[in-house]
Write a structure and sequence with these properties.
Chain lengths: 116, 111
């Protein structure tokens, strides 16, 4: 295992529901990421946090709201999603710190989300 | 704009043969490149990386080649095994925490 866990592994929600995805890393890293992986599309970076501070928001719609209470935990709060938001949501972590180039990211297994 | 792409969406090889997965990138400023493997039901797993000051790096059964002149990256897998069947992604880092991933190549290993 990579040391990055995600819950739940599968989630089905209606468009009016509110749900949250959770990610936890046990690697002592300082940077955490949310990615969206849709069928036949490259991984899309959504958010990056470094030492709990958001450093990247890749023009993500406001119906996705990230939260990083500490360097080990990352949440993605979901509200009023659309069917096209159905995808695999991956969390990753890396050493972080200065933001230097070239950090290996370690991924969790993902949450498979289906929006009905 | 910045992009990382793959030449082939699928690759089928015979067990025991060598596999070569190719990748093109467009940002000449990228200085760190990574190959990931993603098996069904799992997240991407780091395989090997290379920095722009190198043109070749070897790991266990894997070799990454970087050709900065033509902005090309390749992953070579020696003696391909059934367990190597997966989707392989190349990725480039252009600085900071933003890594751009390619579309992926699915590798099928025939027994």
């Amino acid at each position: 295992e990579t040391g990055v866990t995600q819950t739940p592994r599968h989630l089905v929600m209606g468009m009016t529901n509110k749900k949250s995805l959770k990610c936890e890393q046990h690697l002592g890293h300082n940077a955490m990421y949310w990615y969206k992986q849709s069928a036949k599309k490259p991984l899309e970076l959504m958010f990056v946090y470094n030492f709990k501070e958001q450093t990247e928001n890749n023009s993500v719609p406001s119906r996705f709201s990230p939260e990083c209470p500490n360097s080990s935990h990352l949440f993605l709060h979901l509200h009023t999603l659309q069917p096209e938001d159905s995808a695999l949501y991956l969390c990753a972590s890396s050493q972080g710190g200065s933001g230097r180039t070239g950090e290996t990211q370690y991924f969790g297994p993902g949450t498979r989300l289906l929006v009905l | 704009g910045e992009s990382v792409g793959l030449h082939l969406p699928t690759l089928s090889v015979q067990e025991g043969d060598n596999s070569i997965i190719n990748c093109a990138y467009s940002n000449s400023a990228s200085d760190y490149f990574i190959w990931y493997k993603q098996e069904s039901g799992k997240g991407p797993q780091f395989i090997i990386d290379i920095r722009s000051n190198m043109d070749k790096r070897q790991g266990q059964r894997v070799t990454v080649l970087l050709n900065k002149t033509v902005k090309h990256l390749s992953l070579q897998i020696a003696a391909t095994q059934p367990g190597d069947s997966a989707v392989y992604f190349c990725a480039e880092n252009t600085g900071g925490f933003k890594t751009i991933f390619g579309a992926g190549t699915r590798l099928f290993v025939k027994a």
